[in-house]
Design brief:
The protein is an alpha+beta fold. Helix content is 29%, strand content 48%. It has a 6-stranded mixed sheet, covered by helices on one side. β5 and β6 form a beta hairpin. This is SnoaL-like domain-containing protein.
Amino acid sequence: MASENTELVNRYFDLFNQHDWDMMAELYSETAAFKDPSLGPGIVKQTRAQTAQKYRELNEVFPDLTDTVVQVYPSGEKHVIVEFVSSGTAPDGTTFELPICTIFTIEDGQITKDYTYYDNFEA
C-alpha cells in the first residue's frame, strides 16, 4: 500500500509540474479536506473543480510554477509526507522559492486530505 501511495504522490508532482491541473485534481476524492495558509485558518473542503481552479489561478501569476521534491516519506498505510520547494517567476520578474511540507492522506487510491505547511509570513 505504501508503494502505491508513493506512486500516486509522485504522479501528483509530475502533473503539477506539467501544469495539468484537471488531471492533478482527479487524484483527489470528489471533495477533499485542505489545510493551507492560502485558504485561511482551519480545514477547508474543496471539490476537484475548486482545486483545479486554485492552481490555474496560481499558474496565471507564476507561469513557470514548479515543485521540486526534496524527500518523500511514506508513513503507515494512509499517509505520505512530502518535503518540497515551490518556485516561480511573476510577470514583473519577481521570483520566489518556498520550502513546503505536505501530509497527504490517501484512501481508496485517492487523496482525501492535503495538509500543507509553509511560512506564510509576508515581509
